[in-house]
Specification:
This protein is of the alpha/beta class and 296 residues long. The protein is 41% helix and 14% strand. The chain contains 10 helices and 8 strands. It has a 5-stranded mixed sheet. Strands 1-3-2 form a 3-stranded antiparallel sheet, with no helix packed on it. The longest helix is centred in the N-terminal third of the chain and has 29 residues. The two termini are 41 Å apart.
Amino acid sequence: MIGQMIRPRVGYGSLLSAYVSRTLVPTSSSVPASIHLTCQSRSCSNGSSGSSDNSGSGNKSVYNWFNSNDITRNMAPSDIANYLQQTHDRVFESNRAWADEQKKKDPEFFAKLSAGQSPEYLWIGCSDSRIPAEQISGLGAGEVFIHRNIANLVVNTDLNVMSVIEYAVCHLHVKHIVVCGHYGCGGVKAAMTPKDLGLLNPWLRNIRDVYRLHEKELDAIKDEAARYNRLVELSVREQCRNVIKTAAVQQSYAKNQYPVVHGWVFGFEDGLLKDLKIDHKQMLNDIQKIYNLTES
C-alpha cells in the first residue's frame, strides 16, 4: 500500500542490495563517508579540455571515483572475475525463481503481460539503485510506466523524458504522473557543492537553478541537513511544474481531466513516501499565462 512501511522482501529488484550501495555523482567532503573522490586507479574523465589531471601532467582533468561500499575494492583480479560471474548468474537464478513464483500465483500472469500494458501511473524517479518504484509503491507489473534519471529531473531539452511523457499521456493514457525524489539524493547534494563536476555540470545546473529560484528560503535554513531536504522537495515541485508545462499534459487534462501530476519524496529512514500535495489545477492556472499550450 502506498505510503506504508516497506516490508522486507527478497526479489529480483534487490538482488545485490546486500553487496553494494552506489551513488553516481561526486560529492563534497560533507557527504556521507561512503562516497569519496580520491586518488584511486578507477577514474573518469570530466570531458573538459585544457585542465590538468591529478598528476599535473597537463592532460584532461580526471575525476577519481571511489565507493567505499564497493566489495571488489580489495579483491585480487581473479577474485573480481569470479565475483562478477557469480553476481551475473545470481540474476538469472533469481529471475527463474521469480517467473516460477508468478506462474504459481497466477497461471495466466505472463499471458496477461504479453497482451499489452495499460498503466495508471507514469513514475519519474531517480536512478538511485535503492528506490525500486514498484516495491515502495505496492504497484505491480503493468501498473506503472517508469522513467528514471539522476535526481529525477524533467528537462525540456531532454528528448528522453519528453518522449516518455508524450508516450505515457497520448498513447498509454496514464491517469497520474508522479515525480518522486528522495531524501539523501546524491545529485541534489552535488548541485549544492560549488565545484566543477565535468559532464554533470549542465545536468546539475537544473537543480542549481532551483536553488537560485528559492535562494532566500533555503539560505534562511541554518541546519545543513534540513536545507538539503528542503531543496529535494523544492526540486520535486519544480519538476512537477515542468511536467505541467508540456503540451501533452495540458491538452489531455483539458480534454479528459487527467493526468494529474503529483510530487512525492521517499525517505530511507522509515521507508515512507511523503506527498508534497501538489495542486495540479492551481499550478496549471499559474503557468498558463505564458505556457498555455491548449490553444493553437
